[in-house]
Amino acid sequence: MIDCGNLGCSYACKDTGDSCLCQHGYTLAADNTTCMDVDECTVFQPCSQLCENTVGGFKCDCVDGYSLRNDYLTCKAKGQLATLIFANRIDIRQITIDTLEYSSIGEGLQNAISVDYHYYRKLVFWTEVTLDAIMRAYLNGTGKTAIVRWGLSNPSGIAVDWVNDHVYWMDADSRRIEVASLDGSCRRPLVWTNLQKPRALILHPARDLIIWTDWGSNARIERAYLDGSQRQVIIGEGLHWPNGITIDYPTETLYWVDAKHQVIEAAQIDGTNRRTILEDLPHPYAITVFEDYLYWTDWRTRSIQTANKRTGKGQTSIHSRLAFPLDIRSVHAERQPRPKASERRGCSLNNGGCSHLCLTGRYTYSCYCPHGLLLLEDERTCSDRPDRTLVFAQRNTLRMIFLDGTLEGSSDDDMEATDQSRMDTVLPVDGVVSAVALDFYTDDDMVFWTDIETKTISRAHLNGTEQMMVVRHNLDQPAGVAVDWVNKKLYWADAGTKRIEVSHLDGTMRSLLIWQQLDKPRDIVVDPQDGYMFWTDWGNNAKIERAGMDGSNRVTLVDTNLQWPNGLAIDHARRVLYWLDAFNSTIETADLNGFNRELLIKGEQSHPFGLALWENLVFWSDWDTKSIHMANKLTGGNRRTVVKDMKGLMDVRVFQRNHSIFGTACTIANGGCSHLCLLSPAPKAYSCACPTGITLKADKHTCHSTPARSLMYARRKDILQMSLDTTYLADVVLPLHGLQHVVALDVDPVSGDIFLPDSAAAVIFRASPDGRKMTRLVSSAIGTVEGLTIDTTGRKMYWTDLKRQSVEVSELDGKNRRVLFTNLDRPRAIATHYPSGRLFWTDWDSENPRIEVSDMDGHSRDVLVNTSIAWPNGLSVDWEEQELYWTDAKTNVIQAIGLDGKNRRTVVTDLPHPYGITILGKWVYWTDWQTKSLNRTVKDFGRPVSTMREGLAGLMDIKALPGPPVVENACGDNNGGCSHLCLRNPVGFSCACPTGLTMKKDDNRRCNEEPESYLIFAAKGMLGRISLDTEPLWDVPLGVPATSHPIGVDFHKEKGLLFYTDIDLEAIRVVPLNNLSSPMTVLSPGYTNPDGLAVDWLANNIYWTDSGHKVVEVAWIDGTCQKVIIDTGLIEPRAIVVFPSEGLLFWTDWGNVSKIERSYLDGSERTVLLNVDVGWPNGLTIDYEMRRIFWNDARGDTIGSSDLDGQNRVVLVQEVPHPFGLTLLGNHIYWTDWDKMNIERADKTSGNNRRVIRRDVEGIMEIKAVTKTSQQGWNQCADRNGGCTHLCFYHPTGRRCACPDIPNSRSCSDRPIFKVRTTQFSTTENYVNQRPYGSIREVSSSNDDPPGLIPLLAVLALVLVMWVLAMLAVVAWWKYKKQTKMVEGPQGGALTYTNPTYSASNSDVNTDRKPFTWRRLHHESNHQVRMFEEKGEVAALISEGSSVEHESPPPTPPTRPEPVP
User: Fold this and answer.
1) What's the pLDDT at 1077?
2) What pLDDT does residue 545 have?
3) Given CB 3.0 to 4.6 Å as the disulfide criterion, which of 315, 339, 435, 1205 pairs with 307?
4) In the beta sheet, which residues pair with residue 35?
5) What confidence score (pLDDT) does residue 894 get?
6) Nearest-5° angle of CA 1150, CA 1151, CA 1155?
7) Which three-class secondary structure string do you get for 722-766?
């Protein structure tokens, strides 16, 4: 023991005896002699969570949900392993911490920045700054939706309150923090003052706290309670770019990253105990924590890093080479601990009893309402409807501020306070681009607004629901809007069109009220009490005017000392009109007659725009001050600012429910008006009005149904109609939606329907003028239709197609299409003249521009005009004067010529760019591209020329109504006796066939229903046919509905079925060739890429390739009995063909090593035929006579051929850009070409004599040739399915039976259950090659047993018992020998029979068997004999011990599909 002498050490001293020592866990006190306990928890912080200091030591512990590890220092979370989710800008990923495996939660995103999640509801939330939206999805990636889409501008941080089920977010541009329910409803601003550049936020629901970073000029970290109360700065110094922030909840430690200082720092959640964890980081952005580790993203290294949360040691990169790592969160149940049900209090228990939002403060909670709703007296329930709300337009948003009656006595200082009611919020409406004017219909909580960019008027409820455009056409600068809340009408003023109009509140029954002497009308208000409307006009002669609400009694109220009169408002109680002048910076008043004018405010505003009144206040918006101001409406005093620092402020209105409602003359029965009943001043009180362009009848109450005379013209996306009946010239846009590029049009005067070719959609539509009916008449095999005319008498439609260089005709429903002329150059306009039976069209061939003429049936084609003509555009026939008019945009003239080609004359000269033309009475009307105008002149003199409408860009064709009259139909009532088309000609009519069909040889009025030889092909959105019987070789759509993207095609000639694969529908479909309107899906197994298709017409099976699943499959042609026959060694199988009579299957595979393979029909004995010099083998076909295969190679640009073994290979055709489909017919080989969009052919033996059959077939794919002699041959599967219960595959050694991969209700045998013939029937016998089949869906069930099944079973049982009792041993030996003879095993073979023909004798059954047939038991009539013998063979086979012995007799073979006639 060392003597410490006089040191006085309480424990010990050093060996030198000059100082004291203490035992482990103690340290010297200030007197250097006494030992005191060390508080390791405070000094060393050794524990990851809880630390308890003990005498001489410490003890670590963990919070609930964690357990102490074996080191007794760190804690491990219970439950499943944690993951990390992080925003990677274009996607959101989830990564495991231990294995570093990751999956995608959201893909294809635009700019995902911040992310958080709700663990218990399995939801992920993120901010999308490109869309300016708050997004939500499930953690598995499904259900992606935008929960907040309005009023956001650069949303940054987001955080989820997983206890109270709220989502919080920050918006950097509007500088606010908002809160909403998890679905985005009940949105409410929370913090909006003194925010500069808010970035990240985190919640601590257990402490009711929200903490956020702000990296503005005074960078700081702040916190507040979840209701926004008691806001305070907790870190206000030493920050520059505080980005990400997170909380370690067990230790209540706050961690953040500072990208400028390149550090990670920590402090307690109250800001104390601040410390640095890591330094010298490249560019840390976001941070999270789990257990003992921090995880953060780094912009510069594009990685996720980790380090110890207490020491910063062990820094490691766990994920690198990321696109753009941003926010990050650790995902585990313990990162979002929830109180137990018994511990729930306040907002976490039944939403605190609140009807909407429940937000917690310090030791309390309260109910809150979404902006615009009032909290009722119970302090739990919000009002169901808004009231007393200031709504204003601000560029691309509509915003509102709740008015609670406290504004009157408040000062500007009061307005700066954080009173919740002063904060604006956004109306959740879409598509606002540049809103200007506002008004309300308070009965339905409806707001109306105009948009001068989209040129529309829209409406929606204040909560954003039921949004719709009520006026979308013929608006230019709609800057004023007003609602007649009594009569439910909508009024608006348009400075661009210089009109004031009215309609119902839904935009219907639109009527023109004021159109004369308007310059720049701006704002408009209505006074239903006296029946007046008021508007400002800030044109050259600025004024304020008044008229009746029906447009009558128009007077000027104010026209002096005005420059830019903008906003208007009426004090209905005081009968006073308010207006403001942006130039004079004044607000003035007068009574409703314009008298007693007074100046209210002068010079205290810079550029006032919108104006509103409420109680004793007047509100106005100001462009220059970027504010909304208010003052006393009586004195102009006590001016204050309501909203400031907001650009683009426009109109302002107050939503209030104190409008008086009273009865009017229009209240009862609409005033007796058929359409519009409008209020007007006393004594008249009301007047009836009609939609624009329609006139009233003599009774002054009823409107005509349509204009008697009008013009209809195309403006690419719109169809406009201008009435010629009214004193004004105003066009209306017909409600025909979805048009893209309409160049031509015509009208059927019989039905009133409009015929419209849309070149962009490649469709000819037939539409009713009201838009209620819109039918696609022609939607395939159509290019760019630039001219169309209706034969109103013959009920035909003629059109020119610029792209296909053709003229066609069809019935008015688009059926019976016939191409009249091909190989034109640039055909455009077209017109007919029924009395003369003549057809006219223009062709502005650059070398030979001309106008041609022919009979309406296509005969007697001739050139009418080909001199002094350059760009003949429009064409119109004057039926009265027997003249043809046309426009020429190159020679800038309108000319006319007699229908006989004589008396050509010039009507108008020096026109800029005339296009469409039409004749009505003495007038000729035309459109002009360059001047964007509609014009007219007297047709006989060409003067005077007047402009009827200007400013119409994209004007195209024009037609005058009424059009040509309906005269006597030369075809009579019975279509002239024609089976298809009856076409007019100068001497009467002629019968004609649709393109590709020919007349019957013995009847020149009836057409064959099908060509003898033709090609069937798949193309974009269509299945088509090209007849090879007659010229021109023209593609004709088959008209199969719901055809999206067909790829492979094949047919079953005998059954008249067409099969095709559709990659978009992921299905194999079938349609009867005699009923092309009824396709059915036979297989929809969810292909990745359904591709090649082949029909085995003997076994009635279909084969197909699936490059997605990399398999070759087979099924019955009704889609049942599906089976994969090849599933190995395939990369991208494409084309597939069958040789049924040889039992062979061929397919192409263009994987890494492209090849052509062959197997038997069951997939056995597979062999590679060709794998050298094979690039992208697409098409594949067989010449069954020459016994050769042909294929095309899209990589080698060749077509090759070989024998069936791959030998004797030759290259037939070279320089084929991208061949796809391939087929054979006669001496020619046909193929499709992707690049050129062509169908070509060449000699099949030499490759010579190449010819393009059709050009410009968009998306051309597979092709197949069909003739009357197609699909010949025979094999045993053709006879009653080869005796198989399910699939029958022919093999050269005999047929093979197989079972589907998924068993069905029928018992399946892999051996034949009865014998069939081994040779084909002679042609003299009545043989039906089928299984048999009924309809395409008809398949026999297992209950379809043969007739007389019970007697059959009884006889079978009796015979078996007799044989067993009499000759047990002999019978057993005999049954074994016969089984091995008659039925081979699974390796092949077939049932053998002694007699290969059908007869009525017992020789049908093997003579070695005990004869036992249905015929011996029954003696039915002769027509049943054959059926009974077939059933007898089944019974005899079972009785002799077939592969299904000891079972009940199997059902008859299932019937296979037969098309329903």
Assistant:
1) 87
2) 97
3) 315
4) 28
5) 97
6) 50
7) EECCCCCCCEEECCCCCCCCECCCEECCCCCCEEEEECCCCEEEE
Q: For residue 1289, how many other CB atoms are within 10 A of its CB? A: 26
pLDDT of residue 1321: 55
Statement: the pTM of the whole predicted model exceeds 0.85: no
Spell out the residues 6+ positions from residue 1326 whose beta carbon is closer than 8 angstroms to its own: none
* Residue 43, pLDDT score: 76
Beta strand spans in 1171-1262 (E): 1177-1183, 1188-1193, 1198-1203, 1210-1213, 1219-1225, 1228-1233, 1238-1243, 1251-1254
Rounded CA-CA distance 222/214 in Å is 8
Nearest to 873 by CA among 786, 803, 790: 786
In sequence order, which residues have a C-beta less than 8 Å from that of residue 553 and are 6 or more positions away? Answer: 547, 680, 681
Check: CB of residue 930 under 8 Å from CB of residue 913. yes
Residues 1148, 1176 contacting (CB under 8 angstroms): no
* pLDDT of res. 495: 95
Residue 668, CA atoms < 13 Å, CB-side half-sphere? 2
DSSP of 85-110, one letter per residue? EEE-BS-EEEEETTT--EEEEE-S-S
* Confidence (pLDDT) at 1256: 86
Q: Is the backbone peptide bond immediately before 1032 cis, with ω within 30 degrees of 0?
A: yes
Task: Name the amino acid, one letter, at 1274.
Answer: W
What tokens does 960 get? 């005058």
Output the six-digit token pair for 936.
Answer: 């007219």
Rg of the chain over all Cα atoms, to the nearest angstrom: 44
Using 70 as the pLDDT threshold, list the residues of the chain that sit under it. 1-3, 5, 99-100, 404-422, 604, 1085-1090, 1321-1461
Model confidence pLDDT, tens digit, residues 11-59: 888 877 778 888 888 888 888 888 988 888 887 788 989 999 888 888 9
Residue 128: in which H helix or E strand, if any? Answer: strand 123-128
- Distance separating alpha carbons of residues 416 and 865, to the nearest angstrom: 80
C-alpha to C-alpha distance for 671 and 960, rounded to whole angstroms: 34
**CA 923, 924, 928: angle at the middle one, nearest 5?**
140
Q: Which two tokens stand for residue 1224?
A: 């054979």
Q: Which of 188, 190, 211, 164 is nearest to 346 (CA)?
A: 164
User: Cα–Cα distance between 916 and 716 in angstroms, integer?
Assistant: 13
Determine the distance from the C-alpha atom of residue 260 to the mean position of all C-alpha atoms in its chain, rounded to a whole number.
44
Encoding tokens for residue 1249? 């004599």
**Using an 8 Å Cβ cutoff, are 257 and 281 in contact?**
yes
List the structure tokens of 1284: 């198989």
Q: Which two tokens stand for residue 963?
A: 């059009």
The pLDDT tens digits for 1386-1404 are 333 332 222 222 223 333 3
Please count the residues of the chain: 1461
**Sign of the torsion formed by the C-alpha atoms of 1274, 1278, 1282 and 1285:** positive
Place of tokens 């057409």: 1007
Cα(687)–Cα(710) distance, integer angstroms: 25
The residues, ordered by sequence, that sit 6+ positions from 220 with a Cβ below 8 Å of its Cβ are 213, 214, 233, 235, 236, 239, 242
Write down the residue that tokens 């204050």 correspond to: 640
User: Would you say 83 and 93 are in contact if contact means Cβ atoms under 8 Å apart?
Assistant: no
C-beta of residue 1103 within 8 angstroms of C-beta of residue 1124: no
Q: Which of 703, 676, 729 is nearest to 507 (CA)?
A: 676
Q: Long-range contact list for 463-469, CB < 8 A, 24+ apart?
A: 463/428, 464/150, 464/427, 464/428, 464/429, 467/429, 467/430, 468/506, 469/507
Q: Which of 1136, 1117, 1231, 1213 is nearest to 1182 (CA)?
A: 1136
Q: Where are the alpha helices (DSSP H) in 266-359?
A: none
Residue corresponding to tokens 């003067």? 943
